[in-house]
Amino acid sequence: MVQNPPDLRPDRANARLERDLSTVRPERQPTIGMVSLGCPKALVDSERILTRLRAEGYGISADYDGADAVIVNTCGFLDSAKAESLEAIGEALNENGRVIVTGCLGAEPDYVTGAHPTVLAVTGPHQYERVLDAVHAAVPPDPDPFVDLMPASGVKLTPRHYSYLKISEGCNHKCRFCIIPDMRGRLASRPLKAVVREAEKLAESGVRELLVISQDTSAYGTDWSDRPSKAPILDLARELGQIGIWVRMHYVYPYPHVRDLVPMMASGGILPYLDIPFQHAHPDTLRRMARPAAAERTLDEIAAWRAACPEITLRSTFIVGYPGETEDEFQTLLDWLDEAQLDRVGCFQYENVAGARSNALPDHVPDEVKAERWARFMEKAQAISAAKLEARVGRRASVLVDAVDSDGATCRSAAEAPEIDGNIYVDSGFESLSPGDLVEVEIDEASNYDLWATRI
């Protein structure tokens, strides 16, 4: 499970959030704390909830002691994620006592209340109105029109210079290992004009990078009965590419029309970066996953993308130890990775998830075999990453500054997404830099995952 880093979690004394939202706080103002777990899509839900609450007159507390109640936005994708969510709920109960649960694990209210019967309410994912109703019942609002002013961008839990832009909810796929459609429902795309308007407001507020997210980004708009084109994601990408800031695509399912996104990347409209969850490469494993089983055609697509946009960065995630995975199937995955030469790779060991159809498959892989295969996979992925980064030494790059401290500036180029990829460190000439600056650097050193550079 991906968890928000400590400096982005209000329950871990987020000083920036406290400074931004609590500078002017009348003593009578009710306050709410937020613990946000899970993926960036859940983080966007947390931001929306906090924005609504702030507009209603609630203060946002950066610690348990200052909160009249605490919302825990949970993850329920894997059993390990469920365990962490229950632990976070327990911590909030111990530290504050008044807890409202929402998010993916909230789709199983009996599971939550069975472990923590004293929670005030349990709501499911993106049920914003029910969360607000629960907060109203626990802590009545007390709005003050002279204080409760919100910026156009709303409350953000990410640094000011980048923001996640969620374009749809739900998913129409039926992957056997995934329960997201059960928790979040079928694909429901936001109107294109609403997405573009939000993006423009974020840009006006100082955001320099938009990270486009959904459960299936390339399926955006295909749920509309009167859609203006066969692939509305292309229309959206064109619109976003005209705003004039970085636009990065995540969770892009490899449909054929993805090849039409790549020329936009080559022309500079959107960043030359694709995050595509391939999951595996052996056709039999993919069939058991209920995923498309055309690994050879995928290699052809990758070659076509690179031919159209040589600077493209490809990122993906994989599952090892899926039920029935043989040594030959795993070796096929390693061989495929050798051919694909992906730039950024993540890997997970298969876990059973309550409600997933993969649980009933035969021939589950022993834990020790899963761990051994994961180590072999990561060893190969690390070697590919190290070689690709070494090839960038001596090149110049435009980088976005994420943070600056006494040791240097932490930056990223178009090839690095925040929190999941490596960084580019600038340790000289950084004193005048601030987060959100765009500067030119020359790369002079590489490691397995990170780069070091000199400001030009």
UniProtKB/TrEMBL annotation:
**Family annotation (InterPro entries):** Elp3/MiaA/NifB-like_rSAM, Methylthiotransferase, Methylthiotransferase_N, Methylthiotransferase_N_sf, NA-bd_OB-fold, Ribosomal_uS12_MeSTrfase_RimO, rSAM, rSAM_horseshoe
GO BP terms: namely: tRNA modification
Tell me which residues bind [4Fe-4S] cluster 2: 171, 175, 178
Under the heading Gene3D superfamilies, the entry gives:
Methylthiotransferase, N-terminal domain, Nucleic acid-binding proteins, tm_1862 like domain
> Which domain of life, per UniProt?
Bacteria
What is its subcellular localisation? Cytoplasm
The TRAM domain sits at 390-456
UniProt keyword terms in alphabetical order: 4Fe-4S, Cytoplasm, Iron, Iron-sulfur, Metal-binding, Ribonucleoprotein, Ribosomal protein, S-adenosyl-L-methionine, Transferase
Binding residues annotated for [4Fe-4S] cluster 1, in chain numbering: 39, 75, 104
Q: What task does this protein carry out?
A: Catalyzes the methylthiolation of an aspartic acid residue of ribosomal protein uS12.
Q: Which protein is depicted?
A: Ribosomal protein uS12 methylthiotransferase RimO
Originating organism:
Roseivivax jejudonensis
Name the gene: rimO_1
